[in-house]
Specification:
The longest helix is centred in the C-terminal third of the chain and has 25 residues, at about 270-295. Helix 4 packs parallel to helix 5. The protein is α/β, with parallel strands linked by helices. It has helices at about 20-30, 50-60, 70-80, 95-105, 120-125, 145-150, 175-180, 195-200, 210, 240-250, 260-270, 270-295, 315-325, 350-360; strands at about 35, 85-90, 110-115, 130-135, 155-160, 190, 220-225, 235-240, 300, 305-310, 330, 330-335, 340-345.
């Protein structure tokens, strides 16, 4: 049956494809004790303080959540030194990324993305009836000069992930400032900082929130799914100028952040010891994987995230399948124009060693 009474823009739109879940792999192959290094999750799980607070949240499951997210906004305001009216909460930062497109764009207006951008950006642009303008990457990362050259009178939005997923490449503060200085103020820029905690303070990485104080057309998105270990609860947010945030909050779904996520995020935000330990684990794991890739003669892309993309050659698809049969899930990224690469999440010491052993045996 071919449906004709649906939005025609959806016909050629590819849905988001997540990393293969562990239970699915074990069901399909009849194996146990597999490890997942495919979705850039914090391998430690949530902090002990977050685990303890979940019982409290369970007591009020019959009640709707606070629609304003007052307590979490208050906590974020104090922690980030921003006004509460700059914050928009979302069901994960993906939710906010789509809301931004709906506010910023009218049908037929243009949004610029990198050719290896996070796949949610094209979905958000299409849902807003926008026109996607794709710019070629430069050395696996964003080519800001080419993005500026692509700006027209129809441009209303530019998505930039820093660091970028899946390449791990990043834009320095001086590069970002020069880009924003050259951009017409009528163009909104989304700076997706999903991996901010892993990148902050390293290699001239900019703090987007500081830049929002000078550039009112800049919107920063962050998430509790990565370093904070709350991927299952789906909670993220954006920081923008108050007027734009007001429009975002007008169109977001009521209760888009659930009670458990709100309380867990507030608790996680206060547990910065857990974040520091997670960052250290990630840096140690990244050094280990990079060293082993060098030993194996496999080129990789330096990354400021909690993942690394490694070049494994023209037989990457078969290699991915071999790793699955050894109980190791990583991420093939041919859909990002990288058919010869695998993206690997930095796991625990044991998980990283398990992956390297399986990789070595499968090459």
């Amino acid at each position: 049956m071919s449906l004709t009474n649906v939005n025609p823009r959806l016909r050629d739109l590819a849905p988001y494809v997540p990393g293969k879940p562990l239970p699915q792999l074990e069901r399909e192959l009849g194996i146990t004790d597999s490890v997942k290094l495919a979705s850039n999750e914090n391998p430690r799980g949530p902090s002990d303080k977050v685990r303890a607070c979940l019982q409290q949240a369970a007591e009020d499951m019959n009640r709707y959540p606070d629609p304003s997210g007052f307590e979490l906004k208050k906590a974020l305001s104090g922690f980030l030194n921003v006004d509460e009216n700059q914050i928009t909460l979302g069901n994960g930062s993906n939710d906010v990324l789509e809301l931004i497109a709906r506010v910023a764009m009218e049908p037929g207006q243009e949004a610029i993305v990198d050719e290896r951008c996070f796949v949610v950006y094209p979905l958000a642009i299409s849902a807003a009836y926008g026109v996607q303008v794709t710019v070629s990457s430069k050395e696996w990362g964003h080519d800001l000069t080419a993005m500026l050259d692509a700006v027209t009178e129809k441009t209303r939005l530019i998505y930039i992930a820093n660091p970028n997923n899946p390449t791990g490449t990043w834009i320095t503060e001086s590069e970002m400032v020069a880009f924003l200085d050259a951009l017409p103020p009528s163009v909104w820029v989304v700076l997706d900082e999903a991996y901010f905690e892993y990148a902050a303070g390293r290699f001239e990485y900019p703090d987007g929130l500081e830049l929002t104080r000078k550039y009112p057309n800049l919107i920063v998105t962050r998430t509790f799914s990565k370093a904070y270990g709350l991927a299952a609860l789906r909670i993220g947010y954006s920081i923008s100028n108050p007027e734009f945030a007001d429009f975002l909050n007008r169109i977001r779904q009521p209760f888009n952040a659930n009670s458990v996520a709100l309380l867990a995020a507030e608790t996680a935000l206060a547990d910065q010891d857990y974040i520091r330990e997670s960052i250290q684990l990630n840096e140690t794991g990244m050094e280990f994987l990079s060293d082993r890739f060098n030993t194996l003669g496999l080129p990789f892309i330096p990354s400021l995230g909690n993942f690394i993309s490694v070049e494994t050659g023209p037989n990457t698809a078969q290699l991915y399948e071999k790793l699955l049969r050894k109980g190791v899930i990583v991420r093939p990224i041919a859909n990002y124009l990288m058919p010869n690469h695998l993206r690997v999440t930095v796991g625990t010491e044991e998980e990283n060693s398990r992956f390297i052993q399986a990789l070595t045996e499968s090459l």
